[in-house]
Structures
1.
Amino acid sequence: MAPGTACMDSFSSRVARHVKSGQYAMALELFQQMQQEGITPDRCSFVHVLNACAGLQALEEGRHIHTQIRESGYESDVYVGSGLVDMYARCGSIDDAWSVFSRLATRDVVSWNAVILGYSNCQQGEKALELFRQMQLEGLEPNLVTFIGVLSAWAIDKGRHVHKQIIQSGYELDVCVGSCLVDMYAKCGCIEDASRLFNRMTTRNVVAWNSMILGYVKCGQGQRALEVYRKMPHGVLEPNPVTYAGLLNACSSSGALEEGKRIHTQIVQSGIDSDVYMSNALIDLYAKCGSIEDAWTVFQRMSTHNVVAWNAMISGYVKCGQGQRAIELSRQMQLEGVEPDHVTFVGLLNACASIAALKEGKHVHDQIIESGCESDVFVANNLVHMYAKCGSIEDAQSVFDKMPTHNVISWNALLGGYAITGRGKEALQQFEQMRQEGVAVDSVTFIALLTACSRAGLVNEGFCYFEIMGSVHGISATPEHYACMVDLLSRAGHLGEAENLVKTMSSEPNSPVWKALLAACRVHGNEETGKQVAKRAVELDSTKAGSYVLLSNIYAAAGKWDLSRSIQRQRLSRGVRKEPGRSWIEVNGKVHSFLVDDLNHPQRAQIRAELRRLFPLMKEAGYIPDTKFVLHNVPEEEKVMRLCHHSERLAMAYGFISTPPGTILRVFKNLRVCGDCHTATKFMSKIVGRTIIVRDAKRFHHFENGLCSCNDYW
């Protein structure tokens, strides 16, 4: 053997060893040294260094080596050509891979596998399938690598066909092929097929276990995913980051907080808790399970935060009812140089919607326009939703009109906006337009329609839509639809019909249905029916305060204070906390929140002085306090004082003293506005010459010049 040949063989074998051990950079460095010493690479050296380029994703270096291969005359060699196809495919340059492949005079199974796998990885499954068929037409039998490479690209019908070929080839029981088949069925949503195949496997690797765990998560069966994990042979197989990520998703989707904490402990013990991907999954788990403090602890421990981590925290704070904190966090994120993406914007829009921060929402809208995300239908739908929730239906309609296409979510957001603002007839007109555009309606569409009819007193129209929902659109009525119908009838004074409708429900009435009927009993003072309805509502959900409060209020309004207090004691003995009435107003970009009789605001003295100034002017204009809305057994004078210090009035008074005359005020309340505050706000709007927009738990009220948009039907 010539000395030059011996040196070349030595370099080639050393390059091969480095590639085999995953030391790609060292392999590439050695190849360059070989050329510097004047040694001409042979076909084996070129193939090894192409593998190194693929491992490093070094596309430009690979192109340079391709030039050398062409100059050396090896490009048409099937062995080297297959290496080039594989390098380009693994570096994501599928067009270059195809260009080399199509020029090969001879193609072996290795070159076919490389190009098929390349198209599969580039999410071009149809092209991969076409090549898979062509390969067999040219007389080449697929091997184990072919099947492993292509399974992830198939839709389920084509995947089943490939599965049959795998059985015929005798590869089904191979652990790698079997794992890929399980993964294919799981990803296609055929979880039972995946499970049957998984159970038939005599040997399972961690990929197979992960596929089952992730498959159940994808199908919304988080608990089944956790059950699979408990059966995994720990000690024989160790969970990897993919396993843990799937388990955290399983816990977050099923609300399994304690299980998630145990898995967090295992992640720490495995030493992978510092991984950014794992930390993001932990934040998502805690945020979705309502443990925002734990999410914040994980977030703070991260050395760097990417946009995914920020998004998880922002969404978590929104979910936990801390919209203002979510907005503050987004500002901190941008100060740290992290650019928001479309997920960030959606989280911020939901934050603004949750606290009705219209000014902040408009600022987010400006950012969306600057980023070019306005054309994203997901973002645009949330813009419509935000404006609707903030009571600016005109802005919601404007965004909607500019959208190039509308899906059912777009329409539902718009219809819901018209419903909550009490513009029932406009909602019905929009629905007809939706039908003309041929957009398929869904269950949520009819909830919006029935709510719109309820808020506007459109009883006949409501019954018509309730009927066609099933007869024309094939949508079965859910308890939510029945709750809307009960509300519609009750508001119109048809309490008996509402009771009969509940009795004729095809399914068992749930808590919201009974609560809707109970609220009607409260409005109409129907004590006897209220007792029976409240009993059913509490039986179905004894952990929520609403039913106790409504029944207690019925007794209080009837002057039966002992019974009212008895219901309150029953609620407290069961550990059920009542949500306090809270109102808030946005002034100069900051949200100010008030509770009833609030003494915490720094300008409380000026706020109360403004209410004292307005009270005689209101009485002079004809206002008479309706003290039946004070559900406490106290003297009449104290009842009047309590009415004056309801949270919505404190928020309005702050708005009067903090904004220029003529400024529109937007006040929001978490509970239903009481009848006396509704009357008082009409008087205040006329006396101060302001438009006052109030959103309570049920709808928007636009007060102007002594009148309300609801026409006192609410």
2.
Amino acid sequence: MTTITIGLDGANWELIGDWLEEGRLPNLQRLIDDGIGGGSESCLPPITVPNWKCYATGKNPGKLDVFRFDRIDTANQEHVFHDATDFRSAELWDYLNDEGHTAGVVNKPSTYPPKSIDGFVVAGGPDASETTYRSLDTGFATPPEVEQFLREELDYRVHPSPMISPTEKGAAEVEAVLDLIELRFEAAERLLDREDPEFLHLTVFYSMALQHYFWDGEPVRRAWERIDENLGRFLDAGHDVLVMSDHGTWPVDTVFYVNAWLAQEGYLATERGVDELLGRVGFTKERALSLAKSLGMTETLANVVPERVQRLVPWEEGVKADRVLSVIDWDATTAVASNQGPIYLTLDPGDPAYEATRDELIRKLEALTHPQTGQQLVKAVYRGEAYYDGPYAHHAPDLLLDQGQNVHVSDAVGPAEPIADEGVWAGGNMPEGIFLFSGPRFRSAGLGEQASITDLLPTLLHTMGAAVPDDVDGEVLDVFAPGSEPAERAVEYRAPISGDRTGAGDDDEAVEQRLADLGYLE
């Protein structure tokens, strides 16, 4: 028997509730009927990174030293982009290995570059990529013989082709995502048979891209039906299964352009640059990608157009992600924000104006409402070092925004108004995801439970008879069947082991190209 985690990026029960009632997801319903679960609260910001690592470590980002894909270094006026080597913690599979268990990881985000474990690691999107146009073909898995098997036997791909994007989300792009879902499950099943790990983790990631662009539309329903069909691969072998997500997805009713608001309020100033000129003549990244695809020239462009030139082209919403800092007038700027909420001040914490500015921003942001609907745009604003806990909490963003319900906070600079009724995404990230334990060792109690995403690691370790590190934030959940071995056994604790890989990975520029050019830093 293998313990299996199936991670579904951006999943939440509200999204799929009607499809469950209609009988469209029979295998998931079977797991629900036999299991116990409910809502899982992610860490802020509720995005892929940091939350897949919060699951894998059982810790909040204050103990990981990574708070999202990137951070804004206002002192040096630059973006810093993270890869797997920047996280300061061992993971679930490290602890299982340390106690004699083998493990396999397939497609979990924030695992690139993949490390060597007693088992295998297949790195996942969006970080395992070279550029917007070229998917990573080698170096995505360890050990080398597993990567060779995936390439030769399954023609394994890290990313869909053609890549779905804001302007390219037609039938071909949807089918590419559906095919990739099938490929992920096929790879997991084949590696389970071939390598026989005692623990297996599988993430389905690009279904989240469909949810971003279509919310609960027909492409998303088809993706969930494909996921459900493939869940059947693991249901009849007596495995213990955890189905979980890093966060949830809700429909976007309002877009809050936080940098446009900061500019309007006098906290952020910009300089006129090439981005503005290109935008005025209608030359945007969406149009460039669409034209390149229609002419069959994406590979040619990737080879002949320098990456720095590709990144000059603005999105239709304006300047975003890695380009925001290049248009800022730093001498006249006090605050700048990243996508989905982190705000960084240019003031030193020792400056007398620092706390006064944070107080002022908190008061103004928490009072913001939609001018027509009265909808609260920001549920709460937290000081980073107070929200997080751990030795690296002081490295956190100066402020964190907890987005209002059905609000997406965009970092775009350029919109004339900071509030819009629609944007690029139809579905945005929300803090509550899902968890569901099902199998011989778990009781059947439905979906009435609540948990933190950090509870999943200690619960899995205890399920498998392993000790729980005493520096985690999560707790072992009360999910076990009466009389089962984990229910009868007391939770054991142990000293943590080092998971520090700092300095072993790529430089910031390479990581920036993989993430920003892939477009995931929307």
3.
Amino acid sequence: MIVFYAVILWLTGAVCAYHDYVNNTLEPAARQLLDFKLEHPKPVGILSTMAGKPVDIRETTTLNNDGLTSNEFFLDDVMHSVAERIPERVVHAKGTGAFGYFEVTHDVSKYTKADVFNGIGKRTPVAVRLSTGLGSKGGNDLAKEIKGFTIKFYTNEGNLDLLGLNVPVYLYTDPSMFTPFVHAFKRNPRTNLFDLTAQWDILTLKPILLHGIFWLYSDYGSPNGYRKMDGFPIHTYELSNKNGDRYYAKFNFRTEQGLENLTTAEAVAISGQDLDYGTRDLYNNIALKNYPSWRIEMDVMTSHDITNVDYNPFDVTRLWKNGTYHTIQIGRLVLDRNPDNFFEAVELSAYNPGNLVPGINSPPDTIFKSRRLAYRDTQNYRLGVNHKRINVNAPKYRKTYNRDGVPSVNENMKDVPNYYPNSFNGPVPFIDESRPNERIIVFDSNAVDLESSSNFYKYILVDEGQKQRFIDNLVLSLVPVVPEVREKALKLLKLVDLELGIRVRAGVTAARARIRDESLMTIHH
């Protein structure tokens, strides 16, 4: 309840540290239009058509004139407004974003030659997008979903995109699971409602999903806004230094605001007041110069370590075992600038796990191979084949033989030869003499392994309060499930952990008994 009342105070302006106005009772997000007026005391220019023709005030109405067909201002408006939406993302559709910088604080040249991570004090501009996993654009920031945490580093060697989640594991290892999982966890094609029976049905048929879903049903599924959650690019990346030595690393982004999660009751209470809680919180704190930051570190194994552990370190559904790696600090990520235009900077942004730089090489797991194909395809569909020429996606440097297609094409490489190889001084490749000449091959297993799910309940949930809230959330999700699927789910939970299975079954039985008694009382009255 403390969190709930704090949010109400914030929303009503009772808590405010913004002193640019005599009347400072509004939060920065609510004052954006007034900010603009104060920064521009006069109109910013003469209104024009899309073609640049100045608009006469009589052309701003179509009443009592022939403006329907001859008024270019009206035609611009009406024909643009019906076409100004682009397809929303299939997953992570609702999100927010900000700009900032990454600063190197530790020497990691032993592990990677990547320019972005070398040179203590070096700063690299970044764009960050934070998002909910499965909801639509108009959804709830605090819905119990896995959250997205993606960073684009504008490095001197090209863009580096690290795509992560607020939890350290992914959901499955087989790329063919993407469509069934998304369909089951999105809306039922007939009812257009989220369907818990479909969700638990696929969980019982594909138990590999359980570990990731367990994180979702715990307190970790409801971070207190985007500033107070960690970020985890889920893959094990191959690193190489200037001598060609190889290392393997998982990157971690640890919030410096303090990791903070909400209970289900707190999330529900806040959502009743503000579906955009995370978006508003991030915007306001940056506007108030309370810049959010994260400590960037990496868990590292050597080439020898990686082939001598008793588990698959490339399995994106499991955690690395304690004692098999060491953690290295790299630097800090700071967000210090809100976008001037959300559509241009966030909606048009495109993050692709295939965007890597020398010294940070492709992870060998099958999920990564699939993602680098799927992300490229979905961005071509959503934004067009030239999406990497859009300002927010454009690298510092680009010389390419790709051109033409749907705008924007910008300078379109002007008169440079448009084929490679050529004899006329078009762009040429370079030779990376320190690039490793060996690659590791990973063979995945289809065997059902419940160890990670069991360890989550036993060791990740560190106290009884976390365990009880986790169990309560599981119970709530199972009560409306059809009996056949619910029984399979309860048996599966018992296989994961005997105590967990017993406690969830007892909770479901008690909950259904209460529903039955309330129904009988209603009928009686």
4.
Amino acid sequence: MNRRSQRTPIATALIALFAAPAASLAQQAPAPAAAPVQQAAAPATTLQEVVVKGAASRDDFNAVRNSISKLPEDLRDVPQSVTVVNRAVMDSQGVSSLADALRNVPGITIGGAEGGQIGNNINLNGFSARTDIYLDGFRDRGQYYRDTFALDSVEVLMGPSSMLFGRGSTGGVINQVSKKPSMKAATEVTGSVTTNGLVRATADVNTPTGDTSAFRIAAMAQDGKPSTRDEMTVQDFGIAPSWKLGIGTPTEITLSALLQHNHDMPDYGLPPLNGHPVNVDRNTFYGNTDDRTNQDIASLNATIDHKFNPNVRLRNQTQYNWVQTDARQTAPQSVGAIVNGVYSPLTTSSLPLSQLFVRQQSHDRKIRDYSIYNQTDLTVKFDTGSVKHTVLAGAEFGHDGYNNQGITRAAASGPCSGFVACVPVIDPPYVDSPASAVTGRGNVAGGSANTIGVYANDTIEFTKQWKAVAGLRYDYFNASVTNSISQPRSLQQSVNFTSVRLGGIWQPTEAQSYYLSYGTSFNPSLEQLTNTTGTVTSQQQLEPEKNKSYELGGKWDLMNGDLSLTSAIFQITKDNARSQNTDGTYTLAGKIRVNGFRAGATGHITSRWQVFAGYTYLDAEIVDGVAAGTQGKVPGNTPKHTATAWTSYAVTPEWEVGGGAFYMSQRYANNTNTTQVGGFVRWDGMVAYHQPKYDVRLNLFNIFDKKYYDALIQSDGGRSVPGTGRTAMLSFSYRM
């Protein structure tokens, strides 16, 4: 039985499970209320004035609360920098992918697929956040490209946070917040089309199914070209059903799922030459027409939230993730010259580009990634004299699994023997893989891990002005990896680590909050269930990376809370840091330190004018490098300056205009700093027409057609993926 036939019953059962409530809506919908019976008029009574604070407008950029259950809801009580990119910001900018949403967070850069990995590879504050992506508070470690159709917001918590999340989180944590059912019936459908030819449709339907229950389903389908790089195509679809029971009662149960399929063209960008991406047209593509990345994603979540009383709350959550990838990918491995039938790779050359060639290498693989986690949190509020405590205690149990079947395509003879082919640097042919590139099975890498974590955190309120946070977490991480061909053939690791979180908060007024915090985290060498230490000769090389952070910052709410300002200085230090070598393996590179500053502004400047802006400065250095040529260098894909600004203005109640810029200074594509990518500013714009039932929006991306490089890939000297050129998108949303 093939894999597809094995998946069909699962997918069918899931769809049937979540379609059942929808099928019975007509039977369960409450009947129209009967006309009220006339009553004698009651004597007039004067009631006490009640002040009701409603929810923020659906178009409001400002978010003052977070959804992470381990943190206080009010962001001013969190002694760390937190950035929330909500639905209003994403809709205003025409965002459809997680990568695009994260461009609003200065200090984040995008990486490409490498090292056996596919999907969203992100750097946060100078450190990889590959395994620090979460979905509704649970680790979302599957290797796939994430869409935003089922998300309400994206939350980014800056700095090491292993006390809250376990292993990882050196630079921070990225939490995707999925859409949840509510008691308000609502339906919204959206269609869009771009000048590149990408057609996209989404739907979001929320319907009460009883007095205390509701069902919601979000769906997405898209087909076409996502960028101005002609060869890039996507064909994706997904659904995200959820059902919530007991809404507004002491016990709430939420069942949710994400089912998604991606059929995309991979992009490995341009190879380096003379210290920069090779100087060719940005639409140049070194892949083949039969390249593709097929992905199937299933994520299931069940949450039980019970409030015994206003001071005691118990929450249990279970999540299962399963991702399968079938990839056929061709990458530019190097630039070189062919002399007398022999290919010689070059890092520098004064030869005309017309005399040079690119050697293609296959990155074909079949990956299966799965995890199951259960987490229980108990929150208790109590007083000891005049001091108030909010204690969070919990436990987490998890299992991860990984399997990667490598596949090779290589010519048996010729100047590029052992590789797919050699193509001209300028105007390479866009054709199927050559028949001379024979397909063979490569190494099978497997891995599994078990995790146990117990933790406790106390938020202490001494007075209204002075608060403190103190927490500890103990983690046990046991992992093993195997290889069918590569060395080492097997490897096992057990790690015990205690993480610390400390913070002090001073709030002299309701509008001001100042804090000082300290946190630690750890990254096991087998964290990604792949061997990231090269050929291991001693257990000492399996030491985990250890991280610590200091942060001093302030948060201010101006204009009655309509505008929020944040600012912080910080230092993050990683010991036993891993560094990628030229052969693709890793070594423990000693120490990396990042000193930084960040500032942000979010919300309304006036009733018509709002802004979402931020800036981050990163002074990053590999202080003590073991890998050759890295000591004293800047970590790859870490710009010194990043800034983003997006603003909109309601000219009339119907018409809105907006725009903004993304700025990034120059950065290096690798840790040896041999390949540099220049800085850039990309300008976007927006015009929208609003009505109670519908919106029409025109988004313009890269208005001035700036040539820039988006994602960077460290391997093979550092490859650089060009960003999209000038593009327009017209979208129409209808609500009922």
